[in-house]
Amino acid sequence: MSDGVIENPQEHRFELALDGDDIAAAYYQMDGNGNLVLTHTEVPFEYSGRGIGTRLAIGTFDLIRASGRKAVLKCSFMARFYTTHREYDDIVVG
């Protein structure tokens, strides 16, 4: 379901383990309504073009859905991903 993506609430991010200690991460903040505001996505440059960002986005959205929470998309990458993946309409607000 989440394809290797985990939530790290202490760091306020979703993580996808890569090689060694490398990770791809989607950072979030909580808003006053309990929504996860996705603010920034990072994939190390050396992993560009491998679909890592897409795997991270799918895993992040799936984990948010499974937890019963909603997402607000302030991250440009996540917003672009969502425009072509409207199957996540049920969890995206704002």
TrEMBL record:
Pfam families: Acetyltransf_CG
InterPro entries in UniProt: Acyl_CoA_acyltransferase, Gcn5-rel_NAT, GNAT_YJDJ
Span of domain N-acetyltransferase: 6-93
Protein name: N-acetyltransferase
Organism whose genome encodes this protein: Paracoccus amoyensis
